[in-house]
Amino acid sequence: MGPGPVNAHPRVLRAMSADLLGQFDPEMTAYMNEVMALYRPIFGTRNAQTFLIDGTARAGIEAALVSLVAPGDTVLVVNFGRFGLLLGEILGRIGAKIETVEARWGEVVPLDVIEDALKRVRPKVVATIHGDTSTTMAQPLEGFGALCRQYGALSYVDATATIGGMEIAADRWEVDVVSGGLQKCLGGPSGSAPITVSEAAAAHIFARRHVERGIARDDIDDGDGPRILSNYFDLAMVMDYWSDKRLNHHTEATSMLYGARECARVVLQEGLERRYTRHRAAGAAVTAGARALGLEVFGDDAHRMTNVTGLVIPTGVDGEAVRKRMREDFEIEIGTAFGPLQGKVWRIGAMGYNAAKHKVLITLGALETVLRMEGFTCPPGAGVEAALAAWNAELAA
After folding, report:
1. Measured on CA atoms in the order 336, 337, 342, 346, is the torsion positive or negative?
2. pLDDT tens-digit map of 203-220
3. What is the DSSP string of 49-103?
4. Helix (H) / strand (E) containing 8
5. How far, CA to CA in Å, does 272 sit from each of 44, 84, 85, 165, 201?
6. What global pTM score does this model have?
7. Do 61 and 87 meet the contact criterion of CB atoms below 8 Å apart?
């Protein structure tokens, strides 16, 4: 019950046990086409360029940024936690000129602050995290992409921690590139990064296409822009690989594709709205239960992620001792924190296969017991009762 990875759905694990196929076997390319179609509604898009990056969620982030941004380009980073800082780290290695708008950990960046920065720095790309698990905050994105377009910038969103659990509306938000990961709300293992690319972003990336010499073909023309500085993460070649061109760029991670496909099938069979409601209920239950135990919930209530909740470690309580007892006595993992929150906050994730009423209630019951063992006084049974009431209220709303 940490901030991810979480337990994978059994169907996903079973799907990954299927035998391998050659990367250009007709059955394999049919699966690739299915994956593209399955992830479009999950991303809230009609983008033709919706596919997988082979690698963890960070591979999707790096593929997006290295393909959008050339050395010397100005990029505006919306930073409100550890993963906003990661965007800057990757962009710095690319050689971008980085400008930032920032919020304190536990808050988000208002849209008007982003607009002021857009006017001032005129970036080529604006990059943000949707839900930053380090702070448990979700950056509002209504109007974000349209604002970027108004000032001539492409937009990128990392939705690793929210895809499949909170609404992703790439088309409505008018965002150009969104990437994610399987290991959180999608209920799969880490190792595959779904991504969607708008027509405008695809055109920008294809203008930088430089196909490697060993696989160059007469029907695929190079662009006249600067070459993308990664071979593996070159989205121009990866998009050609996933298209009818079937450019022989790399060997597809077959088992991960099976897993990603099954993740999407599980999500869509449940229904997106039902799934988002379930995650809201889980988050509300964790929050209500924690407060009933006398714990402080970290961050701004108005912008809290539905699937990860930060709890302030009470004064006098050894946070790591609590985590150890939870793991050893109850076999429940809860998360620690990073940077300025390290040793100050626990993070409880209720997402994907773990966003279940009984799992939240068991976790809160175990936490109450462990807190008492560590000398923290809390009302008996109050956490579970409050969580159950909050869960039921959310579902009834």
Report:
1. negative
2. 999 999 999 999 999 899
3. EEEEEES-HHHHHHHHHHHH--TT-EEEEEESSHHHHHHHHHHHHHT-EEEEEE-
4. none
5. 10, 27, 30, 8, 26
6. 0.95
7. yes
